[in-house]
TrEMBL record:
Its main location: nucleus. GO terms for cellular component: nuclear pore outer ring. GO terms for biological process: poly(A)+ mRNA export from nucleus; protein import into nucleus; transcription-dependent tethering of RNA polymerase II gene DNA at nuclear periphery. It is found in: Nucleus envelope. GO terms for molecular function: structural constituent of nuclear pore. Keywords: mRNA transport, Nucleus, Protein transport, Translocation, Transport. Pfam families: Nucleoporin_C. This is Nuclear pore complex protein Nup133. Residues 5-151 form the Nucleoporin Nup133/Nup155-like C-terminal domain.
Length: 284
């Protein structure tokens, strides 16, 4: 092997790989290149033994997609790349690249159009999650000591907390709407207890952003319209979201631990109940 490499005698190496097939010489060659840090050479088509290479790469999934692309098996390349992207937790940039490559492979594959569309939709969803992470406010990124050029992959739950945290001192209606949107990325049913509790947590944090004691009791509806709570619902309505499902149940909201003190405030309860009646009247 060393002699063939030093003399650059690829023909002799190819003969040896064919001659000593039963002795698994091809696998030895592939391992030799891998150990030497010359992974690219195992994809040299002049070596032949493509089927053997395919089997060898079953244990090296980070390289397997390159083999599939060489063999024009784009659907398999797409699946492998997407699998790698979903497993990626260390670098957001790497996940982003893997998803982009996966989408390209899906687009040029021979899969039926309905299958291809489903594959693209799944990737788009993951890319949307990346977009939400990349859009984290600068103040939050700095407060959490995050390097924006070298971010790890955050879970949806982590992003939610960042968007609604006190560190996001300039949080607006869109930050809280994004936090609510991120619930859809948790891969759990919307009525799952964890999702439901987190949903109530987001709404409670939105409520706490306003000073309800400062509102004019003589104009409760006008005052309510100034709250982040109401503005979130306005944005959702403009986006075509079904408000009956989007609006948190009033009784459950008032039981949220974060609102224990505020729930006893008569002004707050007055404004909130008036606001709910107004919203339900509009959407009924």
């Amino acid at each position: 092997m060393q002699i063939c490499e030093e003399t650059k005698d690829s023909d002799r190496l190819q003969r040896y790989m064919l001659q000593f097939t039963e002795q698994h010489f091809s696998e030895y060659v592939f391992k030799w290149y891998m150990n030497k840090g010359q992974k690219g050479k195992i994809f040299n088509k002049q070596l032949g033994q493509r089927e053997v290479l395919g089997k060898f790469l079953q244990k090296h999934e980070t390289l397997k997609w390159l083999y599939f692309i060489q063999e024009e098996k784009y659907d398999a390349a797409h699946a492998t790349l997407r699998h790698l992207a979903l497993k990626e937790t260390e670098y957001l940039s790497r996940k982003k690249t893997l998803l982009s490559l996966s989408k390209l492979c899906a687009l040029i594959s021979n899969s039926p159009q309905n299958v291809k569309s489903s594959q693209i939709d799944a990737i788009n969803l993951e890319q949307d999650l990346i977009t939400h992470q990349e859009a984290l406010p600068v103040t939050v990124v700095e407060a959490y000591g995050i390097d924006p050029k070298n971010m790890r992959v955050f879970l949806p739950e982590e992003l939610i907390e960042m968007y609604i945290s006190e560190e996001n001192s300039t949080a607006n209606v869109y930050d809280f709407k994004i936090a609510l949107d991120l619930l859809n990325f948790m891969k759990k049913a919307i009525d799952d207890p964890e999702v439901f509790n987190l949903r109530m947590h987001i709404w409670a944090k939105a409520i706490l952003r306003d000073n309800w004691d400062a509102f004019d009791c003589n104009n409760p509806l006008e005052a309510f319209k100034e709250t982040i709570f109401f503005q979130i619902i306005e944005v959702a309505f403009d986006q075509g979201i079904e408000i009956h499902d989007f609006l948190p149940p009033l009784e459950d909201l008032l039981k949220t631990p974060e609102l224990n003190d505020l729930a006893e405030n008569p002004n707050f309860k007055f404004f909130l109940q008036a606001g709910y009646e107004h919203i339900l009247k509009i959407i009924s």
